[in-house]
Design brief:
Ferritin, 3 domains, alpha/beta, about 500 residues, 9 strands, globular, Rossmann fold
Length: about 500
């Protein structure tokens, strides 16, 4: 049997979305498609492992009934051959299969698969589910059938991006464009043996990209500790599947509201500290937990409580509170956090006076799903290098991008330009420069990038004599045309 290539798998999985079109909202495609993909993958690998053990031992009972012989124990009712043999009540059948899988693999799968309810006949009648099951039956997802080890993870990432595009505004709730993720990871530069956390992890793209970064640098991608928290249960389940399909089963991913109830805690009940914290939290979230923050038991809001209607600095302070003494953080934020006054102005002043802010990087507008406004990156560092102390690096990257029909996109050269400038830490006219804290104080702690980077275009000098000469020439041409017209009129018997 020919091995499956990445392009073949992408095409096959995207076709499953076409089967769902018209039945459910585009924003919900991912839940059902990823659920079936995961179910098929576990079943196929279970069969592959069982056949191998039976060949090696000759013991059929051990091969198929000993959970220790399998990465995941797949009960009979969750095996694909059983599922595809049925024709009625398929939603209930799939729900029971997922329940059985979770019960047999509590440590790794609890709550992951049952987050999606297939048993809704108004939205998912048997005829639709039957087509989906038949469609997934066309491909085998055993390890031996995959052309490369990470093919499922890469196809998964591709589909998350496609579904975000298809879902429109809702896509921004679970997906950050890959180019922005790549940029942020390149700036933070995670290394082996680090602990990395995303407190608003969505579908897990930033955590996965951190692992890819290690691999590209020739480091061991398994020698890193990954943590995350996500409040949307469906998105959390997708993130868990994403990690498992990438072979990152040790990732600790918690369900819940990070601001109201952080779950990544030590045995002593304190927040875990990390080497790198990376996030794209929802912009200016309302109803974020202002009342609870007044008495935060983890003392995360040392610079002040943000306003009720703007959670941006709540996420920033949570991230700072979870950094170790040498930790760094990168977060995507709306531009309002750079200049808004009141409580946010006081928080901004506190962060600056503690010399925690290393860089402010402005991005092009319309990069994110559902948010056409431009965003920026806040890069924070608990232990700035000597040459960066007492200064903040400002970069105006709003002009470098590829314009798209619906979304703009950072190109590879745009990402490299930003990363190189950040690492070089020097001034480039109309693009970037380090700014002293004294200069920022003089601007009342306003961080608006254009206060520090002159982005105005110089007007070309006007050649006054040249303009006068052009006017004189135009007047002469006009007089010549009038003479010709009067001559024609005279020939026709009209007096001009």
């Amino acid at each position: 049997m020919n091995q499956i290539t990445l392009e073949t798998l992408k095409s096959h999985l995207w076709e499953s979305a076409n089967i769902l079109r018209g039945s459910i909202d585009a924003a919900d495609y991912k839940n059902y498609i990823f659920g079936l993909l995961f179910l098929k993958r576990l079943s196929d690998v279970f069969e592959e492992e069982g056949e191998r053990v039976e060949r090696e031992t000759g013991n059929k009972t051990v091969a198929w009934n000993e959970p220790d012989e399998h990465e995941f124990d797949v009960p009979e009712k969750a095996r694909w051959n059983f599922i595809k043999s049925r024709t009625q009540n398929l939603g209930e059948l799939l729900n029971k299969a997922n329940e059985a899988l979770e019960e047999s693999n509590t440590r790794t799968l609890e709550g992951v698969l049952t987050a999606t309810d297939f048993n809704d006949k108004d939205r998912l009648p048997d005829v639709v589910l039957s087509k989906l099951i038949a469609h997934f039956s066309k491909i085998r997802l055993r390890n031996e059938d995959l052309s490369e080890p990470d093919i499922l993870g890469r196809a998964y990432e591709y589909l998350i991006g496609q579904f975000a595009d298809d879902a429109g505004k809702k896509g921004g709730e679970f997906y950050t464009p890959k180019e922005v993720v790549t940029l942020l990871v390149e700036i933070l530069d995670p290394q082996e043996k680090m602990r990395i956390c995303d407190p608003a992890c969505g579908s897990g793209g930033m955590l996965v990209q951190s692992v890819y970064h290690l691999r590209e640098k020739g480091q061991n991608p398994k020698n890193i500790s990954i943590f995350g928290q996500e409040r949307n249960i469906g998105t959390w389940a997708i993130c868990k599947m994403n990690m498992l399909l990438h072979g990152l089963s040790s990732a600790r991913l918690e369900k819940g509201d990070t601001l109201r109830s952080p779950k990544l805690l030590t045995e002593q009940g304190k927040v875990i500290e990390f080497d790198i914290v990376i996030a794209n939290p929802p912009f200016s979230l309302k109803n974020w937990g202002y009342e609870e923050a007044q008495h935060d038991p983890y003392r995360r809001f040392q610079f002040g409580i943000p306003p009720k209607g703007y959670a941006d600095y709540a996420f920033v302070q949570h991230m700072l509170a979870t950094l170790n003494s040498r930790g760094r953080a990168g977060v995507v934020l709306p531009h309002g956090i750079l200049f808004r006054g009141g409580a946010e102005g006081k928080i901004r002043k506190g962060i600056l006076e503690e010399d925690l802010l290393e860089a402010v990087i402005g991005l092009p507008s319309n990069l994110f799903f559902g948010a056409g406004i431009p965003a920026c990156l806040f890069i924070m560092n608990k232990e700035k290098p000597k040459e960066r102390k007492g200064r903040v690096f400002f970069l105006y990257g709003a002009n470098d991008y590829l314009k798209g029909k619906n979304q703009n996109k950072l190109r590879k050269e745009d990402i490299e330009k930003i990363v190189h400038a950040y690492r070089e830490y020097r001034s480039i006219e109309k693009y970037c420069r380090p700014v002293s804290l004294d200069e920022i104080r003089a601007n009342d702690y306003n961080l608006n990038i254009t206060r520090y980077i002159d982005v105005t275009e110089e007007e070309k000098p006007i050649d006054v004599q040249g303009v006068l000469d052009d006017l004189k020439k135009l007047k002469e041409e006009r007089l010549e045309r009038e003479r010709k017209m009067n001559s024609f009129l005279k020939e026709l018997g009209y007096q001009a």
